[in-house]
Known about the structure:
The chain is α+β, with helices and mostly antiparallel strands and 113 residues long. The protein is 20% helix and 35% strand.
Amino acid sequence: MLVKCIYLILGVVLSIALHAQEIATIDYDTLTISGKYSGKNIFVKNQFSENEGEGFSVQSILLNNEVTVGKYDQSAFEIKLQSSDRKVGDDLTIAIIYMKGRAPKVLNLQVLE
């Protein structure tokens, strides 16, 4: 009886450890787009996963190597590019960090001339 309890406890602990390791190994990738600022914003379609702990794919966005603030936990969102010091024609590089295998889709890439 005691041996069965020990095996049961070991099995539960091992199961929890393997699940925690699985969650911790989510890989990320980067979608980088660049061009000239045209005065318009970028629209992104975000992938969603029903897997526990994953949710929406996009994790963060860098605009010219600076982290932006926004709500990326939705199926589609806008990257606001207006800035007091940005002028039409300025160079832009946008890096979208997302969960590997679930790339977001930029819906209006043509606005980066």
